[in-house]
């Protein structure tokens, strides 16, 4: 009987200490894992948000870049991390495409994480090398259909949104082009600038400077509506590709089992960061769109991820692009 009383007391003390720790959270720096290289689009978003969240959390948000396999290395790492409130994860559309792209996935995007918030969306642009022989979108589609065996379509690697956008474009116009994967968006853009590849679909965070400099040809944006940073650029949908929409969306996650009060506090920190004037200006400069409050809830992120998995699965399977 004495043993049972002692065990109960220890469990009660442990529970009280854990609850107290949650109430004081955070008491040390927080790690935000980024699945791509430093300086890349997702990294820039993460560091901008992290700096702003530090203000409201009272602790530094440290960005850790953990690369590999289209973001699945980082996702698997976070899925297995201690759910103590000090490890979080930011990822883009790759969280939704991984189940279709990888035959052997060590985590379930919908079941192995706590959902914190969406953050920002980044439009995509459809580009060609500067000397591509088409002056508008319709001429470009006509030329590609007539010369599909000769056209090289660059992307930033398996699972990258640039690859998915390219796959969706090919499906929409009824062609199969030669895809040339690179290790990231910067090498893909450099190849386009150098004329080694013909066309590329990539996000505004990477392409706006080249577009404004006249170093590439822009044929449209991939959002439902025109974007602020490129107000004169028509959407692909309004130019004939009905319902064509590809945006790079970013969500923030935590390991499964992270306490709800911690998730809620982190969600509040993300919301505050998205209203920070410095963040707003930085996102405007990048062409990124801050998502509305209604989509900044754990429930909304979960529902959005599920819808994106359903959307991209058939596209990927039709394209036959898989990895082990």
Automatic annotation (TrEMBL):
Q: Which UniProt keywords apply?
A: Signal
- Report the superkingdom from the record: Bacteria
Q: Does the keyword Signal apply?
A: yes
Pfam families xrefs:
TctC (PF03401)
Signal peptide bounds: 1-21
| Family annotation (InterPro entries) | BUG (IPR005064), Bug_dom1 (IPR042100)
**Family that this chain belongs to:** Belongs to the UPF0065 (bug) family.
Protein name as annotated: Tripartite tricarboxylate transporter substrate binding protein BugD
What organism is recorded for this protein?
Answer: Ramlibacter cellulosilyticus
